[in-house]
Design brief:
This protein is mainly alpha-helical. It has 14 helices and 2 strands, in the order αααααβαααααβαααα. Strands 1-2 form a two-stranded parallel sheet.
Length: 292
Amino acid sequence: GSPSGPLAAGRHRMRDGDLPALLMATLPHLSDDPDTAFDALTEAMLARPKAPIAEHYRALFTWLATKLPREQPARVAVERSGGTLRIVARLLETFPEARFLHLVRDGRNTAISMSRHIGFRMALIGFQLLEFLGLDPYEDDSRDEVDDLPDELVHLLPENFSAEAFRSYDLSPALCGHYWSGEVQRGVELLSALPADRLLTMRYEDILLSPRDSIARIGTFLFDDAAAPVGIDPHWLTRATALVGRGRSAWQSLPPAERRELEDACAPGFAALAAHGLHWSDDHEKNRLAMG
């Protein structure tokens, strides 16, 4: 028969071609019935009067913390989205009391992951189209500069776009490395102005090597209030540690020329991190990292 309840609502949204990111990426981790939760959240947020965006975000976090079934009351709201280094200034302005966990991965492996990630691939392809055309072809129909586009990018214009063209486009890890370096340079500079009790910078590789100790350190930073310390829930620590997997990308497996290009592209980002005491060694096999 026809689906009903949350399944029907979810399929209806997908047919409309407009599946909200909050429903797709966030609520499934917080609720067994994300569609119903999304509808209730939408109703609550639409009922709010006009207010600064920061107030709406705080209301959103409060709703998620208090209205969804939980084993115990929420103590803090932790938001994690990829690529947020580029909006650090806005986050600092919007949430002046927030603590920031800066999780840094070896830029060379990050670049390889970015080159394979659908979202980052689309974003970086968009940046290249914008650079060649001087406009976003997905927002503007003008094609005055289209003759300057390389053939492989012509196939990624909205009027020519296909899944095959997108998948086959050769997005260089070095290009992703340049992007990573730029984001790290800008983000680290802004974060460095924070007091020590509001910033924790950790390496992804350290979490892989010592997951329980690393998660405990993160938990202490996020949850402990100096005015009213409560400690870390050992059950939470065990569950969180069990979620830590294994790293996949290995930049040393690239061909020599491509590897050198990637290393050069990531060098400015590594220099910015080194200036703040964070270093990577190249002993990949033992994965030994040196903290300066």
